[in-house]
Amino acid sequence: MGQFARKLRDAVNRDVTAGLLTVENVFTESPSTSGELTLTRFLVDRAREINTIRTWTGGTEAATGTHGFVGLYTFNGTTTFTRVATSADTATLWSAEFTTYNTKLTARYQASEGQYLYFATLFTGGTPPALPDAGGWYARNFEPTDNGPLSAYIGSQTSLPASLLLSNCGPTSRRYIACMMNDPAWS
């Protein structure tokens, strides 16, 4: 097991009781693409408030970022992703390698048990960061079900839009890992 996998496994093990992981198995780290909004579907295990999203960087940090966002989207089952939570624009998000980032959302989101949500990432600027993901074998699962595709992306973005049409998104093998949390210190 390489340095990245060991560090990430240790960080995730510390966080498992703190929140809900989007993907439970780490296979690799993938560089994001500047301006590419990536969505990763996950299932909410129990009713919970989400006000913070924890992410990690791998061996490549973001260099000279212009915009950095994380957020949450819902999917209506047929055509549209709707943003339900977002972070503030943070140019320094993911600016160091092998680092944990706790990013506050601008508003709390009350998730329901059994609900599918999408974790969104967006970086624009220089060198995009490498973020941990579940590996490329999910790429073939773009076809939407009632719960939506496992992952999707749309390019040329500078912020998290209020809504996205599935028809404007493409398939991606990236399923980024994050921990959805309710940070008691959030204000």
Which secondary structure elements does this structure contain, and how are they paired or packed?
Blueprint: H1 3-15, E1 19-21, E2 28-31, E3 37-43, E4 48-56, E5 65-75, E6 80-86, E7 100-111, E8 116-125, E9 130-133, E10 151-154, E11 163-165, E12 179-181
Antiparallel strand pairs: 1-12, 2-9, 3-8, 3-10, 4-7, 4-12, 5-6, 5-8, 6-11
CATH class bucket: Mainly Beta
End-to-end separation: 39 Å
Look at the helices and sheets and give the structural class.
Answer: mainly beta
- In the CATH hierarchy, the third-tier topology is known as Jelly Rolls
**Share of β-strand residues:** 35-45%
**Biggest sheet statistics:** 6 strands, antiparallel
Which architecture name does CATH use?
A: Sandwich
| Stretches with pLDDT under 50, minimum 5 residues | 136-144
Strand tally: 12
In which order are the strands of the major sheet placed? 10-3-8-5-6-11
H/E element order: HEEEEEEEEEEEE
Oligomerization status of the protein chains: single chain
Number of domains: 1
Which bin fits the share of residues in helices? Answer: under 10%
Mean pLDDT, as a whole number?
A: 78
Q: C-alpha Rg, in Å?
A: 15 Å
* Contiguous helical run count: 1
Shape: globular
Characterization of this structure:
The chain has one helix at 3-15; strands spanning 19-21, 28-31, 37-43, 48-56, 65-75, 80-86, 100-111, 116-125, 130-133, 151-154, 163-165, 179-181. With 187 residues, the chain is mostly beta strands. The chain has a single domain, classed as Jelly Rolls, CATH 2.60.120. The strands form three sheets. A six-stranded antiparallel β-sheet has the order 10-3-8-5-6-11, with no helix packed on it. A four-stranded antiparallel β-sheet has the order 1-12-4-7.
